[in-house]
Amino acid sequence: MPTYNDSGFVDLSIYIKSTSESFALANCTFPVIFDTTTLKFSKLLGSEQVMFNSDFNYNELNNDIPTVTGYLTLRTAPTNNTNAYNDIRSIEVDYDATNNIGGIEVPTIDTYLGTLRFVIKENANAIQFQ
């Protein structure tokens, strides 16, 4: 769901939902391909609102009962120190499979995974994501 704003950014919010049997999310990569002649990646937004993230406040959902889910900090890739494709950006869900705490089942409704913010370059034509 791309959103354009007057500040020269386009924000791409990513959602997932389960359409079959229940399953808990483990390590996952959600990649997006974009045109580097029109866009430059800026940052990941909204990670504190993603339930598959160690920074999410599960206590509010569980009446202040502490919840341990096994997820690490939500992040985006590639990092600056990797050899990677320039036109791919992803949201990375990292799960601590060593301790196998159980994770969280993917809901059957649209579930927020974060927003990738891109800077719109000067003289950009149509903006597309895959």
**Count of DSSP H/I helices:** 1
Largest sheet: 4 strands, antiparallel
CA radius of gyration is 16 Å
Distance between the termini: 11 Å
Strand content: 25-35%
Low-confidence stretches: none
How would you classify the helix and strand content by structural class? mainly beta
Overall number of domains: 1
Average of per-residue pLDDT values: 86
Could you list some keywords that capture this structure?
single chain; 130 residues; mainly beta; 3-stranded antiparallel β-sheet; 1 helix; 33% strand
Can you put this structure into words, describing what you see?
By secondary structure, this protein is mainly β. It has one domain (2-120). It is 3% helix and 33% strand. Strands 1-2-7-4 form a four-stranded antiparallel beta sheet, with no helix packed on it. Strands 3-6-5 form a three-stranded antiparallel beta sheet, with no helix packed on it. The mean pLDDT is 86.
Summarize the structure.
With 130 residues, this protein is mostly beta strands.
Topology:
Layout: E1 2-4, E2 9-16, E3 28-33, E4 39-45, H1 58-61, E5 75-77, E6 88-93, E7 111-120
Antiparallel strand pairs: 1-2, 2-7, 3-6, 4-7, 5-6
